[in-house]
Structures are given as C-alpha cells and as structure tokens.
C-alpha cells in the first residue's frame, strides 16, 4: 500500500453544550432550519461555524457549534455545511414516528 492509497480525513467536533442562541430580527420565531452562521460570532482564526439544522418549538432551538479540526479532503465551507446538514438529518425533521 503506497502513500497515494491512504484515505483523506475530515475531523469535525459537534458541540451542543454552549450558551449561544440565534434569533431572527423582528420575529419571535426560531431561525429557519438550515441556518448557518460562519462569521461575526465565530473564532477569527479557527474553522468553526454554528448550524441550526432542525426545527424546534419556539424559543428552544440551540444551534450546534461545529469545530473543523482537520480537512484533508478540502471541502468548501458551503459543501461541508450541506454535507453535515444532510448527513445528520437525511429525511424529515425527526418529529414523527415511522411505521414498519
């Protein structure tokens, strides 16, 4: 097995234990599912972002804080965020049971 055969990795930590909440201006509703914040409140020199990938009861949604520790694959920020959202929530919003 040569060097060219080694897989590439992307390492991401998902943090839910934080005190950050996202709000819409002039609305009591939660931010829409899929909302991403990757500027302003993130670390200036690290690759991190907040994503609220799911819907929740009004006033209770807390975004996940993602820390990208390693990206050998070379995802663009948009593609990585879409991948995480699609991987974590592949269908539906998880609020309904499934029969079968």
What's the main sheet like? 4 strands, antiparallel
Overall average pLDDT: 82
Total strand count, please?
Answer: 4
Radius of gyration: 16 Å
Task: Give helix % range.
Answer: 10-25%
Q: Low-confidence stretches at least 5 residues in length (pLDDT < 50)? A: 94-100
How many angstroms separate the termini? 44 Å
Order of helices and strands: EEEEH
Shape: elongated
Q: What count of helical segments does DSSP give?
A: 1
Structural class: alpha+beta
Strand order of the largest sheet: 1-4-3-2
Strand content: 15-25%
Domain Piwi: 1-82
Organism: Setaria viridis
InterPro entries: Piwi, RNaseH-like_sf, RNaseH_sf
GO molecular function, one term: nucleic acid binding
Task: Please explain how this structure is put together.
This protein has 100 residues and is of the alpha+beta class. Helices cover 12% and strands 22% of the residues. This is Piwi domain-containing protein. GO terms for molecular function: nucleic acid binding. It holds the Pfam family Piwi.
């Amino acid at each position: 097995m040569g060097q060219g055969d080694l897989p590439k990795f992307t390492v991401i930590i998902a943090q839910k234990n934080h005190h950050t909440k996202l709000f819409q201006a002039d609305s009591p509703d939660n931010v829409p599912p899929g909302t991403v914040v990757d500027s302003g409140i993130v670390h200036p020199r690290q690759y991190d972002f907040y994503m609220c990938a799911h819907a929740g009861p009004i006033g209770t949604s807390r975004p996940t804080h993602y820390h990208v520790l390693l990206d050998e694959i070379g995802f663009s920020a948009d593609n990585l965020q879409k991948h995480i959202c699609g991987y974590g929530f592949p269908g539906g919003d998880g609020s309904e049971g499934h029969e079968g």
